[in-house]
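Recall the central idea of this unit: under ordinary conditions, the amino acid sequence of a chain determines the structure it adopts. In this exercise we apply that idea directly, starting from the sequence alone.
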Amino acid sequence: MKQEKPDPQERGIQCPQCSCRHFYTTHTEPLKDGRIRRRKQCRHCRRRIVTYEMVGLVLDSTKGF
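Accordingly, the structure predicted from this sequence is:
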């Protein structure tokens, strides 16, 4: 069974009001639990949303870990 690759245009967040995928980040704040809160505003309709991001661990294979 062949899986289709997701369209690169379909990645990321989408404005719930106008479906635009372009945002300004107006504020970024690290939280005590390790997450990052970002307040964003849609470039088209100016709707404001909040996203929460988790910082992941990146391993460097050149270091032999």
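The beta strands are 23-30, 35-42, 48-54.
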